[in-house]
Amino acid sequence: MSNDTQRPTAVITGAASGFGLEASRIAAGRGMNVVMADVQQAALDKAVPEIEAIARTHGAAVLPFRIDVAKAAEFEALGAATLARFGAPSFFFNNAGVGAGGLIWEHTLKDWEWVVGVNLMGVAHGVRVFTPMMLAAAEADPAFVGHIVNTASMAGLLNAPNMGVYNVTKHAVVAMSETLFQDLALVTGQVHAHVLCPYFVPTGIHQSERNRPAEFQETVQPTRSQLIAQAMSDQAVTRGKLTAAQVAQFVFDAMDANRFYVFSHPHALAGVQTRLEDIVTLRNPTDPFHAKPEIGQHLRAQLRDGKAGV
After folding, report:
1. Residue 225 CB partners (closer than 8 Å, separation 6+)
2. Distances from the Cα of 19 to the Cαs of 146, 174, 176, 239, in angstroms?
């Protein structure tokens, strides 16, 4: 058996930027082989030499892999390439995702197909491909320990307005991750699930349109609500104080502690508590802007008065 297959391996989607790139740096620094998967070939080509240099100092290796996570066959090819080169990974970061906003009825069919394909089916493909591989490794080796981390969002626990398709997919990822946690507990004590729910962090997700495949490109102009959502996302993401590197470290800390939920901004859980209280008390959903009514008033005025600027 080669040295490459004797050391732990990290498989990371969305590895060329944001949380994925920072997780690649940490994994390589820990002496792990790193499979860097991303849809952006140019960004991958730029990022790989740095991660290779870090990995090389520990005797580890890097395997770059261009992938559209929405495509099942490409994910299956990623799994096969990983298994052939390194064996089963001990860390799978199901991290690739895209953002889209606007009033929920204004999302086009292409919007739904693109965002659901990446954010939901991409995560499902990863779970389907890598979980059996890790379970097989656990069965073959009592010392094997594996971790699967799915990137959701605080939008998977809350339902902010004007973010419909994104909210829907991220809620689904939380549900998938919680179910994966429970299902794994039925069959093994060696493979563990986690869910990352970040808030606004400067990662580049607000520029997701750059990666929209040709088959999902729109021929219609963005609606007023979509323009407003884009401007609000640009502002919120770029002004985030917490860095992607800090959030990536939170992921490794959670794995080390075998902690399922990974939050970047624990204060945002106050909104989750309010939502749960709405549900259990049969109360109508609370105004998400109740603490800062001026923001809600401004958004309503923009949508009702036809002003798209922020």
Report:
1. 101, 102, 103, 106, 162, 303
2. 19, 18, 20, 16
Distance CA 295, CA 292 (A): 6
Which amino acid, one-letter code, is at 33?
A: N
Give Dmax (Cα) for the chain. 67
Helical spans, DSSP H, in 153-195? 164-187
Give pTM, 2 decimals: 0.91
Structure tokens at 103: 């009033």
152 close to 94: Cβ distance less than 8 angstroms: no
Q: How far is CA 177 from the centre of its chain?
A: 12
* Tokens describing residue 33: 């082989």
Amino acid identity at 69: V
Q: Which fold has domain 3-305?
A: Rossmann fold (3.40.50)
Q: What is the DSSP letter of 145?
A: -
DSSP 8-state class, residue 74: H
As averages over each run of 10 residues, the pLDDT of the chain (310 residues) reads 74 96 98 97 97 98 98 98 98 93 93 95 98 98 98 94 94 98 98 94 60 72 85 70 92 98 93 97 95 88 66
- 180-195 pLDDT, tens digit each: 999 999 999 999 999 9
Cα separation, 95 vs 247, in Å, equals 12
